[in-house]
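haha ok so turns out i had the wrong file open the whole time. this is the CORRECT one, sorry everyone. sequence first:
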Amino acid sequence: MPYTVMATPVAERQIRGLRGPRRRAYEQFEQALAATGCAALGYRLTGEDPLPQLCVKHLRGADRVVVAFDRRVAWVLLIGPHAAGDQAADVYTTLYELAGITRPEQPRTKPPCCSPADGSAPQLEETVIDELLQRARGLRR
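then structure:
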């Protein structure tokens, strides 16, 4: 089933900043996301809501992309490096800010993005997507 791929305002800025191989890796990912949905992603996050409904894909090097699904729309929430030693640059720090939660203290597990039972993508309610979009407008990174 094809998906419409949309990006938050902060993700749009991040996409515009990608160059060379990083840009090509994202473009290939976006094509796969539109065509295959959750199968294009690596794993779901764990922790406080809405994290368990968000999926991540390793793009190139340390780059990660975080995606949420709402019916037939795949929302690219964030793109950036996983920089564990630099919380100011780390995509997960920005994700927790976007989600309005604190950084989880327990180690994350990485279950598959698609449901093992039926292959479906995790779905966020429209109101949660709206909240994420509103917070994304306020992010400056």
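The chain has one domain: 4-138.
again sry for the mixup
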